[in-house]
Amino acid sequence: MRARGRFAGPDFAEPPVPWTDYASAPPAGTFVCASDAVMSVTSVEVTSPNGALPMILLRKAEGLRAYVNACPHQYLPLNYRGDQVLSACGTKLLCTVHGASFDADSGAAVEGAPCGLDPVPVKEENGEIRIAP
């Protein structure tokens, strides 16, 4: 995985790391969880022969979003200090360690992080969520 900068904001924003750069990135088609397990925000660990990849899944009216569950500030899970990672307004994901916030729809850094969350492509069919190609 490549190194990240230490500044945040529009003048210093860095692109997300491709989720496939993680050594534990599961192959396409890997089972993530049952569809009904994601009502709002859910953290899961997806296991494959490559290891375990921590993920955050978010269900909104616009559809399902998935990100690597690692704040780019220190690579700790967003829910490291508690499960309340969705803002009260439902538009931001929050790091429980240092308060960085990310746009829930895109994963882009809003405040307190050098870059956004790393999106993971998923597909939902037949009551299951799986890693998409």
What does this structure look like?
The chain has no helices and nine strands. It has a single domain, classed as 3-layer Sandwich (Rieske Iron-sulfur Protein). The chain has a three-stranded antiparallel β-sheet, with no helix packed on it. The chain is mainly beta. The chain starts with 30 loop residues before the first strand and ends with a strand.
Distance between the termini: 20 Å
Widest beta sheet: strand line-up: 1-9-8
Structural class: mainly beta
| Alpha carbon gyration radius | 14 Å
Helix proportion of residues, in percent? under 10%
Overall pLDDT confidence: 88
CATH class: Mainly Beta
Annotated CATH homologous superfamily: Rieske [2Fe-2S] iron-sulphur domain
Q: Would you give the CATH topology?
A: Rieske Iron-sulfur Protein
- SSE ordering: EEEEEEEEE
Global shape = globular
Unreliable stretches covering 5 or more consecutive residues: 1-12
CATH architecture: 3-layer Sandwich
Strand content: 25-35%
Write a brief structural summary:
The chain has no helices and 9 strands.
Descriptors for this entry?
3-stranded antiparallel beta sheet; 0% helix; disordered N terminus; single chain; Rieske Iron-sulfur Protein
List the helices and strands and how they pair.
Layout: E1 31-34, E2 41-48, E3 51-60, E4 63-68, E5 92-94, E6 101-103, E7 109-111, E8 122-125, E9 128-131
